[in-house]
Design brief:
acyltransferase; seven-stranded mixed β-sheet; Acyl_CoA_acyltransferase; 145 residues; acyltransferase activity; Aminopeptidase; alpha+beta; GNAT family N-acetyltransferase; globular; EC 2.3.1.-
Length: 145
C-alpha cells in the first residue's frame, strides 16, 4: 500500500538525515523556512513506513518571473524505494496542494546530473548555474503553472 499525505517537520528531518546528510546531527538537517506556516512538508508511505519526503517553501527568487512562488527542497527517497516513482509522485502531490494556494511558479536547485529527472516533471533550465563546494555544479530549474 502506498499513501501520500502532509507530514510534520520532525518526520521530514529524520528521512533527510538518513538520505541527504547521513553523517550530520539532526539539527543540521533543518532548512531555513522549515517552521514557517506557509511551508508544506509531504511524505510517501509504503506499508505504513515513511519512505519519501519533499518540502515546499514560499520563497521568492528574483531571477525568475512569477507572483506566487514556491521552492522545492529536501526531496529525499529511502534508497530501498528508489525507482518506484515515489519522488515524482511526491512532487506532483505537493504541486496539487500548492495549486490550492494559487501558486504560479515552482523552482528548485539541483545537481546537473539530475536535469533529466526534473525535465521529465516539466521543469526547465533557467541558464543559471553555480558551483556548490560539496554538491558540485547546480542548476536553477523552474516550472510555471
Amino acid at each position: 500500500m502506498f499513501e501520500l499525505k502532509k507530514i510534520y517537520l520532525s518526520e521530514a528531518i529524520l528521512l533527510r538525515q538518513k538520505v541527504i546528510l547521513p553523517n550530520s546531527a539532526l539539527e543540521e538537517c533543518k532548512y531555513a523556512g522549515d517552521e514557517s506556516k506557509e511551508t508544506i512538508h509531504v511524505g510517501a508511505y509504503a506499508k505504513g513506513v515513511l519512505v519519501g519526503v519533499a518540502s515546499f517553501y514560499k520563497e521568492y527568487n528574483s531571477k525568475l518571473k512569477g507572483k506566487k512562488m514556491y521552492r522545492l527542497k529536501g526531496l529525499a527517497i529511502d534508497p530501498d524505494h528508489r525507482n518506484e516513482l515515489r519522488g515524482q509522485t511526491l512532487i506532483l502531490f505537493g504541486e496539487n496542494l500548492l495549486a490550492q494556494n494559487e501558486m504560479d511558479t515552482l523552482w528548485c536547485k539541483t545537481r546537473a546530473s539530475n536535469l533529466p529527472y526534473y525535465q521529465h516533471l516539466g521543469f526547465h533550465e533557467t541558464g543559471e548555474t553555480f558551483n556548490h563546494k560539496v554538491k558540485g555544479l547546480q542548476v536553477l530549474m523552474v516550472k510555471h503553472f
